[in-house]
Amino acid sequence: MRIPFINQLVLIVGVLGLFILTFLVFQEKLIYDSTLGKISTNYERSGNGHTLKIQDVRKPYVHLTREAIYHWDGLLFKEIRDEGYKQGSLYHKEKPAFYPLFPFLWRISGIDSILIIFMNFILFGIGLVLLQRNLMKSDTHTNLLHLAIALLLPSAITYYLPYAESVFLLTLAVAIYGIFRKKYWIYAVGAFLFTMTRPSSLMFIAALIAADTILLFRHRDLKHYLKDLMPKLGPCIVGFLAVTGIQYIYTGSFIAYFESTELWPTESGFLNPIRDWSREGFGMSVFSIFFLAIPAIVYLFVLSLKSLRKDCREEPIPFFNSGENHKREYLFLISLLFIAINLVYFALTSGNVINGFYRYTLSVPFLYIILFLLPAKLSKLSLFKRIAFFATCLCGLAVFLSLVAYGVPHWSMKSSGLFLFLIITCFLILEEYFNVRQKWIILILISLPCIVWQTYLFNMYLTDAWVFT
Predict the structure, then answer these.
(1) 179 half-sphere exposure, CB direction, 13 A CA radius
(2) CA 196 to CA 241: how far, in whole Å?
(3) How far apart are CA 424 and CA 430, in angstroms?
(4) 263-286 burial string, b = 16+ CB within 10 Å, else e?
(5) Looking at residue 138, what is its pLDDT?
(6) pLDDT for 327
(7) Cα(53)–Cα(43) distance, rounded to whole angstroms?
(8) Spans of the chain below 70 pLDDT
(9) Residue 454 has what pLDDT?
């Protein structure tokens, strides 16, 4: 039985409403001091340049204003919305590092207020609905629970901000809708727009090539490889060329994006100390590394070795005309490759500064593809294997934390994102062993701390603290 869209919409609006209500409640000093203020602090930014200070303070949440929502990438997207990539404008050198689709849609919407936050979250929710309806085999009311988990993830705070993440997810969801409805033109439009949203779509292109190359070792048919890959790549390449053309009109340079990336110098050095700009972001990034990125690399390594074996040879299957199971497997593969490529890129260029890593692995549509395909994958694993996977990842994470300065040996508000992700992961691994009533009780118990965490990070963004670069 298909879940009525109205039920999904009510859930999305309900989570948004709970987020807003919680944020407003913690603006009240009496309530904040007697609850959250007893276990945490907020941040206050003062000065600039060499006098810049970001201090822990015991103050209630700040008020949400139009001016407060323009920080970090949000400020740059606003500048692109207002002036495009115009030379001589504010941050004109940095702006080509940000792709144009989101700020151009923002301009068309006419929104110049805090409403952009609500619009972004609704777009995020609609994108999740599209993904879920195509990826999850069982289409029952139980799927509503998975949609709720997706909305409540600790990293989902990014989808409230005036950033491009919501459009990034929605456009890929449209492309995937076209894949499952066997309407290539819908895929082409979605993939084209997706590529115009964020530079990390270049990693998606790399993941497409890598996925088809793995399949090539199975079917050994070079002609099919090229014939199947090019229709996938075509809209993405056109989208990249469109971004290049738009930026050229403003800047007179065909390589404006690559020139702008030089403003963020890359580093090397695997032996450098592990660093991050915020403990809040660090906890989520570490979870992503040990429970997502490293397992993805291990999975892909084993899969690649199996593909080289002679007994793994398969007949080539045209992707756009294949069955739903084949498409789901391919999308799962693409998602793991995207995550793995991000980890390798960070390892080679970050100099062990992992600031923002969670944004590129946990605040991307590929995490939600994995999340929605996870129940079918887990159904093939015994309870022992599930527990062994969790225990192995947890041991690796614990050893890592014991060796770095940002280690989190005990709970604190700053490390809550990590612990919430661990709790949610436990629940997902053991989910099928609970009945429907038990699942919803557990979800309700998890939802409030998740919402509080999201509002805590949102307040950090409004106070211009170190977490959302």
Answers:
(1) 27
(2) 9
(3) 10
(4) eeeeeeeeeeebebbbbbbbbbbb
(5) 66
(6) 95
(7) 10
(8) 1-3, 49-50, 138-141, 263-271, 406-411, 466-469
(9) 97
Predicted local confidence at residue 193, as pLDDT: 97
Name every residue whose Cβ is closer than 8 Å to that of residue 302 and which is 6 or more positions away in sequence: none
For the chain, the maximum distance between any two Cα atoms, rounded to a whole number of angstroms, is 69
Residue 397 and residue 286 in contact, taking contact as beta carbons nearer than 8 Å: yes
**Which pLDDT belongs to residue 136?**
82
Contacts of 434 (CB under 8 A, 6+ apart): 442
Structure tokens, 80:
């692109």
pLDDT at 34: 92
- Calculate the alpha carbon distances from 137 to 1, 34, 107, 203, 317 in Å: 11, 46, 38, 27, 21
Q: Give me the count of residues in the chain.
A: 469
Evaluate whether 161 touches 119 at the Cβ level (below 8 Å): no
Around 17, how many Cα atoms within 13 Å sit in the side-chain half-sphere? 6
pTM of the model: 0.94
Q: Give the phi and the psi of residue 43 in degrees, each rounded to 5.
A: -115, 150
